[in-house]
Queue: 4 jobs
Job 1
Amino acid sequence: MATPFVHRNLPRLLLQARESVMAHTRPSLREHGLSDQQWRVLRVLGEQGTVETGKVAREAYILGPSLTGVLARMERDGLVKRERDPADQRRTVVQATAKGRRLVEKLSHVIEAHYGWMEKSLGKQKLTELYGLLDKVIQLEQP
């Protein structure tokens, strides 16, 4: 006998919403040779500058071992530069190169245009409410 679920499958709905949003973004990312993960890294670096790799992993939602491979490919492609943290040689920091920053600048226009379309379609208040609800859900699950 099936379990009588009362609530809709929230994780599935959130994944569907993510895929719906990314469907507009992915073609531009692929056009520039970027994976979703690489874009998340560039977005973090574009917003925060030089960042310790552990923080990049947390902010971009990429597991540490996967991030190592992602950063290696991005470094090979000239998008990021890694170096030892001058304040703590045990740590590594990463920053976008000039090429990486130009890519963030170029893609930000496409992505912001999509967010503008979403705001127009949903209404500014509804989009603001959505951001607020998502922030509250995230906070509910914080330890």
Note: The helical segments are 10-31, 36-48, 53-60, 64-76, 98-122, 124-140.
Job 2
Amino acid sequence: MKRPLAILLTTLAFAAGAAELPQVEIYKSPYCGCCAEWAKHMADNGFRVKSIDVEDVPAARARLGMPERYGSCHTARIGNYVVEGHVPAEDIKRLLKEQPKAVGLAAPGMPAGSPGMESARKQPYDVLLVDRKGKARVFAKH
């Protein structure tokens, strides 16, 4: 599907209040439990989830176009965007609604207290919007 048509369909779905969100393809290590927890977080927030076990997450990240410096333990594709790491579902819903020109969102590292990394000791973290030149700006603070 061409990008303008995809944007139109996504916009119409949100405008109509449609409950159906795009599928999330998560590229993750078969040995990572926090990735499975993030997948559950996404499913609990209305996304259809497809987990794809890979032995080389950095290679999947590179193939999808997310710069390595924003890396985490898993990389996901959602529509025309890449989501790196433990990004909250609400930030992704906002991304899909606003449709900025970008590679996608990243929560670099594995911040304690982020979805899938729940902990009694929460660490403040930023979700970054990564542009097509590899530069980033803060999209949300948590």
Note: The first strand starts at residue 23 and ends at 28.
Job 3
Amino acid sequence: MSAAQQSAQELSRLRDELSGLEALQRKASDSAELASLAAGDEELAASLASELRGLRNEIERREVDLLFQDPYAEYPALVSVHAGAGGTDAQDWAEMLLRMYLRWAELRPLRSELLDQSEGEEAGIKSATVRFEGAHAYGLLRAEKGVHRLVRISPFDSQHRRHTAFALVEVYPEVPDDVEVEIDEKDVRVDVYRSSGAGGQHVNKTSSAVRITHLPTGIVVTCQNERSQQQNRATAWRVLRSRLADYQRAQRAEHLADLKGDLISPEWGNQIRSYVLQPYTLVKDLRTGYEVGNVQAVLEEGHLDPFIEAYLRQEAERRERGQEP
């Protein structure tokens, strides 16, 4: 993306934000006027209560906008989901998480683009990478980075026993083209192979999929969802640049373990959030303590905002106390 395009997008975002604040101010003024007329009028009082509820919700949403301190908060986000410990259940769980994020993006709304997906042997996926673009894309999704744990009666167990599965979610900001990223070509290996995903005869007969390995760091990026090798190569390089930029930032900040994410093992003891379907229903974030009992609303409908907001508010409180988020 060119500097001019970035400036145009930022200008559009600021205009939308200003327009929203002006609309909020008008609503507040109208509500104040309505309050002066509502005394003794039940119908006006009910209308005022409804207006105030809407204002309160809007103000709370605007408060969240003030929590974004990360300089990359407005960047597109690259989200990778990897099946962890748990066999077929883990691969199924990774696909469930992928659907959850795609549904959440539809609600905001954010634009999503599936860049790569590796199918599981029996069900689900081994891994997938999605690009999300829109207001606060990375600022919001960075709250999802970590290990996610699922507890349920396994549909793949003939004895209907309860199983635990894990999946790792990695989140990186997509760096713009004008940001310099240190990549030595001799440190990179590029492999091409036949795509294993959907796409018909073309995908099965041509080596269109691309895998790029950065040898010094061990970072591996694959892309096979485009129809041509050239398109897949360009997308894979874009993802690699973003992952290496995040890696290099982490090194400079001396917070590699916190920012890189892929050093975390997706298994017991490392989870940031648990999703329990049996013997009770509960989704609980272990960092903030926020929890809800309606698992379906989270997994199937994508209602993730309360978890993300709780994380952002916790970070803001820690910053105020002078603690490292």
Note: Confidence is low (pLDDT under 50) at residues 198-204, 259-263.
Job 4
Amino acid sequence: MTAVTVPFLDLARAAAEQREILETALLACVRRGRYVLGEEVFAFEREWAAFCESPFAASCASGTDAITLALRALGVGSGDEVLTVSMTCAPTAVGILRAGATPVFVDVDSDRLTMDPSRLDAAVTRRTKAIVPVHLYGRLADMAGIAAFAKSKGFLLVEDCAQAHGATLGGRPAGSFGDAAAWSFYPTKNLGALGDGGAVTTGRSEVAERVRRLRVYGYSTRNDAGEAGFNSRLDEVQAAALRVRLSRLAEGNARRARIAARYDAALAACVRTPPPARAGETPAYHLYVARIRGRESFRERLAAAGVGTDVHYPRAVHEQAAFASLPRGPLPETERAAREVVSLPLYPQLTDDEAGRVIEAVRSAR
């Protein structure tokens, strides 16, 4: 088989581009000798809140923790049910479970593969307390419909924004539609750290303050826990790296958008491309996900042409053993999508020539 010469993702390229400024920022952390909850973390929290147009941001150790902390800070816990989707990565469900609540899966729409508001009412029980929609692949869910439903029922709303850094809808940024939002800074994200990291943004000061207590064991003051919390702190080195990369996020998203537009124009006749942006929508283009029947043979043909691909996600959450017993309604769109989705290379460091080779390989494979 031909060696892959157009990698699906190459994180080393971004590191090489930013080497000098990253090295300077990281060395400054080492020299200061403070590595947890110091000035880099607090500066990043201010800058991230400003970028998200949110009054408050509280960092934590991962995006999974961000979901847990946001729900716990809002009072969601044991005995509660949380409506969410199965067309996502397992951490969405794990974060809900770790908060003490039970995820209840509802189906997605057939185009964006995000939560279908028309499916919510059938999933409601007397235990329903919150909704966690997922902004998948950099596209916002139907937040007008979801937020209206949540408001009508008095449910809490926490957005899973792990793939939506910089996405907007109707002039509003991802994370601004609910009571809180959970963010991941895993290295593959549009804003990626050099390891794990996460944050909660919210417009509610009491929620932000409780997240800050919960991330440090539940301490209200040192060695005085008012409730049992977690150890979920963003370290100084990751915060420093994120500050460097945040200054380049908009530029990187714009590059992603240009590549995605090129794919759209060249591939629409041979594969099912992602749906066009809605009026007033700016996607973050975290992933470029086409839909293919006969996916595995398609991927093999691209690999033979030297083009790497991936699948997000080959098994829906409810199809995985750890989550198979969780409650759910019918999920036909989720299950259909899980058999068809395939992700093509899309990242700021992908060259124009490489994007052209992806297009050529896809056309030849179809």
Note: The longest strand covers residues 56-60.
